[in-house]
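Q: ATP phosphoribosyltransferase, please. Structure only.
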Amino acid sequence: MSAEPTPLTLALPKGRIFEEGVALLSRAGLPLELPEKSRALQWHMGHVTLLELRNQDVPVYVDLGIADMGIVGKDVLAESGRSVYEPLDLGFSRCRLSFIREVGATSPIARVASKYPNLTRAYLLERGMLAEVVKLSGNIELAALTGLADAVVDLVQTGSTLKANNLEELEVLMYSSARLVVNRTALKLKRETLRPLIERLRELTAQETG
Ligand SMILES: Nc1ncnc2c1ncn2[C@@H]1O[C@H](COP(=O)(O)OP(=O)(O)OP(=O)(O)O)[C@@H](O)[C@H]1O
Ligand SMILES: O=P(O)(O)OC[C@H]1O[C@H](OP(=O)(O)OP(=O)(O)O)[C@H](O)[C@@H]1O
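A: Structure for ATP phosphoribosyltransferase:
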């Protein structure tokens, strides 16, 4: 008699990580078949429930144990300060979080805008810079162009957004890529399901990045 598979709840962020995350988890053997167009926010597929969240909410759902496992950018994870188990760098959605100003700007730095206020404050403190931090939600670079802020802390990948807006990257705060995150209690209680899944994902990631 074969045992029922252990129910598993996964947290994935909508946006650029979603598709690649679903594809990777499917290759690892999870039965994920999503309808092409749907306004549903969660899907039940066999023993797996998939939750579609905003990026910042993934560490919260995983830390509080609503989701057993999730995928999120290292940048968002570091900003959240949540204590989740992070067994794997999945290697996609690579980018860096950088300190950015208008090319040639020389004004004193009194205000810095970012979607990452905690990481920005820690960086300014480390550099001994006394500046106000303003949290914004998107198109962060505009803050530096409009005078809302003297500098911004934002993501850079190809650098084309910087180039198109006459901005320059002065320092990299951190490098980021998509990470697998796991609830610490689920790792113990669902060990026999989660450990082999993490190992399959580790092998797939090694094949793909190695
Ligand atoms: N240009 C980029 N190239 C590669 N990876 C990126 C890029 N921009 C962001 N990322 C990574 O992908 C993650 C998700 O980015 P995405 O653009 O989907 O979020 P978003 O739509 O800005 O999020 P939200 O509006 O929910 O805050 C980021 O946290 C980061 O780790
Ligand atoms: O160096 P690049 O390749 O130009 O990529 C960097 C841009 O990508 C992200 O923005 P996104 O396109 O996700 O828009 P957003 O500002 O709405 O998050 C990020 O916030 C930068 O603006």
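A: Brief note, in case it's useful. The pocket of adenosine-5'-triphosphate (ligand 1) is lined by residues 15-17, 54-55, 73, 75-76, 93, 95, 155, 157, 176 (CB under 6 Å).
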